[in-house]
Design goal:
With 284 residues, the chain is mainly beta. It folds into two domains: 168 residues, no CATH class; 110 residues, Cyclophilin-like (Cyclophilin), CATH 2.40.100.10. It contains three helices and 20 strands. Strand 6 and strand 7 form a beta hairpin. It holds the Pfam family CT_A_B. One of its GO terms (molecular function) is hydrolase activity. InterPro entries: CT_A_B, Cyclophilin-like_dom_sf, PxpC. Keywords: ATP-binding, Hydrolase, Nucleotide-binding.
């Protein structure tokens, strides 16, 4: 069991998402940066779909009541165990009574805390991922409790630190994309404009989508409401782009000009408001 002493800014449980329910209008959800979440689980030899704690910018303060192992990947938010600094991408043993806290944000936006065997929150529609209206919580609050399994200390994990030099993937400003279904509605010059322009993440961005500030290509193209996915880039009539993220709706009515790769979604998820980037078209 873990007690939430301080909740942080936006702390939630996420796994690989709620797959197979989009026909019912249920968003995928899941870790915004699935690569970093996967790193944290891999360090502990967890299953890929084991639930992790997604921590956004300002970390929580957590008191542990069971012995376990932990690993943190993704954003660097100055983690500490009992006020002693620890590193990302390394396995640590947590004893009953220990307190994990976070401090100054150094790099990235979202950190992922994994525990041995994953967090044991409720499963709804085959996933533990928090989503308002589906799970009983959308974020953790002070004095909440989180269930975990007790770790057997006789099973020593020896993988700590092996991923230390493999987590800087999100520092790039290049976001790789595939052609979207409606990109061809626009002529070559207009398509090129979308690729040569720099884009800035707006201050209304969240787990549902990132709104980009620039007015790049006003248009009057219309289309029938069609399926969208996390990573779909929509072009609004006013000429602005919206990049759909993990809690995005399942259908949309704006032209789908690009589709991000899973790695690109992870990279974008680690960029803060005001960050500047550009798109790079790749082939399937």
């Amino acid at each position: 069991m873990i007690k939430v002493l301080k909740s942080g800014l936006y702390t939630s449980i996420q796994d690989t998402g709620r797959v197979g329910f989009r026909n019912l209008g249920v968003p995928l959800s899941g870790a915004m940066d699935s690569i970093s979440a996967g790193f944290a689980n891999a360090l502990l030899n967890n299953k890929k779909n084991d639930a992790v704690l997604e921590i956004t910018m300002l970390g929580p303060k957590l008191e542990f009541f069971k012995t376990t192992q932990i690993a943190i990947s993704g954003a660097e938010i100055s983690p500490k165990i009992n006020n002693i600094s620890i590193l990302n991408n390394k396995v640590y043993t947590i004893n009953s009574g220990d307190v994990l806290s976070f401090g100054k944000l150094i790099k990235g936006v979202r950190a992922y805390l994994a525990v041995k065997g994953g967090f044991k929150t409720e499963i709804v529609l085959k996933s533990r991922s928090f989503y308002d209206g589906i799970t009983s919580k959308d974020i953790f609050k002070e004095n909440d409790f989180i269930n975990i399994d007790k770790w057997n200390p006789n099973k020593i994990n020896t993988t700590g630190g092996l991923l230390k030099n493999k987590i800087q993937f999100f520092e790039t400003s290049i976001i790789e994309v595939y052609k979207g279904p409606e990109l061809e509605l626009f002529d070559k010059k207009q398509q090129e404009l979308l690729l040569v322009s720099n884009f800035t993440i707006g201050n209304t961005s969240n787990r549902m989508g990132y709104r980009l500030e620039e007015i790049v290509l006003k248009h009057s193209k219309s289309m029938i409401t069609s399926p969208v996915l996390p990573g779909t880039v929509q072009l609004t009539p006013e000429g602005k782009l919206i990049v759909l993220m993990k809690d995005a709706q399942t259908t949309g009515g704006y032209p789908r000009v690009f589709q991000l790769t899973e790695k690109s979604i992870a990279i974008l998820a680690q960029k803060a408001t005001g960050s500047i980037f550009n798109f790079k078209l790749i082939s399937i």
